Amino acid sequence: MAGKIKEIQAADYKDEVLNKERVVVDFYSTECPPCEALATKYEALSELYGNHISFVKIFRQGNKELAQELDVTGSPTVLFYEKGELVGDRLSGGIKRSALMENLDSLLNEQEVKEVKAEITPIETKSDVIVLGGGPAGLTAGIYLAQAHAKVILVDPALPGGYVATTHQVSNYPGFVDPQPGFMLSHFMSEQAKANGVEYRVAVDVSDIDLEKKQVVIDGVETIKAKHIVIATGSRPRPLGLPGENEYRGNGISYCATCDAKYFDDKEVIVIGGGNSAIEESLFITRFAKKVTIVHQFAELQANMAAQQEAFDNPKIEILFEHEPREFKKHGTMDMGVVVEDLKTGELKELKSAGIFVFVGFLPNIDSFSEELTLDQWGYLDADESMKMNLDGVYAVGDVRSKAYRQITTAVADGTIAAITISKQL
Q1: What is the CATH number of domain 245-358?
Q2: CATH topology of domain 5-118
Q3: How would you write 90-116 as a 3-class SS string?
Q4: What is the reported pTM?
């Protein structure tokens, strides 16, 4: 095992963890992409901090009783100990280097922290292509480029998969007779890219992006330089910008039915929106909630006709047309309210529910780019039919790009076109 790391079993836990001065423990599993993403960071930090802190790994699947005793329910989970006591944060999922370092530093004194930081050596890596974003567009570009024998490094602040990984099911992606869970479709794409040689830098902090120089700095340590950059950063749910929205985001207000619908079993919820996402996600929520009230600003829905008809036929769904939200309120646990305005009369009233879901479109993820990129009137990257941007060697693909339709299939097509275009130039 690389780095200053010791793998132990449950029988060693007392001696190697509880009886040591300072210890960090990584509970990992096999066939676990987040565990793989953590492994290289954990090894590198063990080299830095290993003279002061004991680095331990425990195979969760082989030590189930210990994991259950410590309430470790997911992989990876990283725990920090000082003199046998749990301290700091309990980290799990897509764990970033910065979060690890913050907790490791808290175990050291000021002088020790200075010594460790003095040992940090910047790294420079060269690649043919940097792909920014691990959704379907970025993964497809990576697959095609890697198969063309290009060196590809994919960078993503999150784990590979993109927004589709939060979709409960995908029924229109070619090649699958039965609807696929979004996270599994993303997993298949990610594993295919990895198998073809795409290198991952995921669950990282992107410190700097210089499109002119074709370089990206991650975690403040590694500078990746390439000949081409593919921007596949996707989009994010559009906020409404109303009072109470930021305050109760993730605490009564959700933007992901797949993530949160299960918490509203036999409850009443409100959905804001009337497009495809709002209606399709409302239908999914009815698997759990006893009633879904859709608040829509227009007199008709904007979703596809099949989804509309299914919603109209669903006895759990009620639609409030020509109403707009004005303010979100929280009265207690599972006790939310939204003040809505009747657009015909101007009357304001508060609707009560256990939770609120917002599906009103998306915004492109372009905040990291300081260079002058050509945008369309809605703020999306305006690439040509070859996916080329106005900066030489820069391409835009997927939901971040200006186009008429944003679907998984159109994202995959964009990634294909960009990769073939680049391959001809390498």
Answers
A1: 3.50.50.60
A2: Glutaredoxin (3.40.30)
A3: EEECCCCHHHHHHHHHHCCCHHHHHHH
A4: 0.85
